[in-house]
Q: What sequence folds into this?
């Protein structure tokens, strides 16, 4: 990245076509960077990783992340960007890397139930780029479907309507302290701005339903700019600060 390029009207992000993208894997309890292992993954460009976990007794690392196609246009011509969510398997012993897309849609800003960070999970919720950073809706992906026949993994969807665009979604568990709760038992929350009326709303959607049913809508006093990242903090966590 070179922020100085912005002064002349250029993009702060550039690519070197002569280099191959790499993924770095470092042991959880590594003493220093010398234990990092690098794996070349041709054509794989990520900005927002969604989740990763270990399989095969630690010999395999699986990662889910959007692959930014036409990455050279990032932050300059976002209308030319397409983010394809992919599942990547890295064999730490052989160095082999395999990957396949989970959906053909333009998806980014993926989130999961925070209780499943770093462990194998099933559901991912992504914003639909129209183009990014304008998000015209949210879809629910079932990652497990890719283990069967590598078909389209979208199992739920909520579009915001003509002229309505949202920000990054975020998952809020209904019972975060219940270890027996279903992974998708919770809410997807986000901000949505209606460019037709100038109104902005806070939405809460049922993460379990195939339509991501809206369960609450709150009109906001002012607009939240597109592209903001999502975060939810429980009152109990704030009280600990």
A:
């Amino acid at each position: 990245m070179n922020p100085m390029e912005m002064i002349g009207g250029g993009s702060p992000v550039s690519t070197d076509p002569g280099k191959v993208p790499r993924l770095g894997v470092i042991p959880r309890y590594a003493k220093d960077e010398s234990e990092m292992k690098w794996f070349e993954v041709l054509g794989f460009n990520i900005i927002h990783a969604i989740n990763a976990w270990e399989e095969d007794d630690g010999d395999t690392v699986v990662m889910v992340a959007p692959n930014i196609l036409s990455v050279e246009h990032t932050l300059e011509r976002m209308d030319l960007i397409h983010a394809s969510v992919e599942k990547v398997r890295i064999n730490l012993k052989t160095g082999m890397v395999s990957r396949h897309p989970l959906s053909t849609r333009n998806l980014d800003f993926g989130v999961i139930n925070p209780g499943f960070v770093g462990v194998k999970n099933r559901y991912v919720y992504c914003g639909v780029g129209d183009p990014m950073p304008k998000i015209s809706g949210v879809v629910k992906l079932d990652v497990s479907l890719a283990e069967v026949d590598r078909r389209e993994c979208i199992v739920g969807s909520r579009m915001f309507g003509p002229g309505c665009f949202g920000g990054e979604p975020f998952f809020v568990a209904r019972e975060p302290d219940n270890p027996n709760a279903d992974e998708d038992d919770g809410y997807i929350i986000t901000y949505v701005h209606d460019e037709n009326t100038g109104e902005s709303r806070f939405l809460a959607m049922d993460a379990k339903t195939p339509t991501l049913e809206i369960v609450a809508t709150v009109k906001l006093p002012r607009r939240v700019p597109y592209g903001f990242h999502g975060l939810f903090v429980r009152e109990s966590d704030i009280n600990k600060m």
About this structure: The chain is about 0% helix and 40% strand. The two ends are 34 Å apart (CA to CA). The longest helix spans residues 235-239. The chain has a mean pLDDT of 89.
